[in-house]
Design brief:
This protein is mostly beta strands. It contains one helix and nine strands. The chain has one helix at 15-30, and strands spanning 3-10, 42-46, 57-58, 62-66, 73-77, 79-87, 94-102, 113-118, 129-134. The strands form two sheets. The chain has a six-stranded antiparallel beta barrel. A two-stranded antiparallel ribbon has the order 4-5.
């Protein structure tokens, strides 16, 4: 049974848009299913809490160069993925997508705020409504 939760697209910290391009070769090596995603994430705030008890895939620890600091530094992190459908706009196309859980993120374990990776979607903007379909 699919769970459907409405959400609002929110501003992220910009960390994924800076770093995911450096993480991608490692992420794809571990989880080739995401090879065609856009190299940024969509941050959403769900209308109701969601606890994920089982993920579809978790990587081994991955070392990657974190460009978020002024001088940069190496980081080691695990990443988990949950297959979803991302409906944007509501009533529009359902895109193949994944919850992208960065284990070192401040949002790891948050039951309302999630990062989503998917193909490039035109005209996304903060404050817009979307719908998440979780199988």
């Amino acid at each position: 049974m699919t769970e459907i939760i409405d959400a609002t697209i929110i501003r992220g910290c910009g960390v994924a848009s800076k770093n995911i391009k450096f993480q991608m070769p490692h992420l794809i090596w571990h989880f080739p299913e995401i090879k065609d995603i856009f190299t940024a994430s969509i941050n959403v705030n769900l209308d109701k809490a969601l606890t994920i008890s089982k993920v579809d895939f978790t990587t081994l620890p991955i070392a990657w160069w974190d460009v978020d600091e002024k001088q940069g530094h190496w980081a080691v992190e695990r990443f988990s993925f949950v297959r979803i459908k991302f409906e944007y706009p509501i009533g529009g196309t359902c895109h193949t997508a994944w919850f992208f859980d960065c284990h070192n993120s401040a949002y790891h374990g948050d039951t309302f705020r999630f990062e989503i990776i998917t193909e490039k979607i035109a005209n996304l903007s903060n404050g817009q409504r979307c719908r998440i379909h979780i199988p």
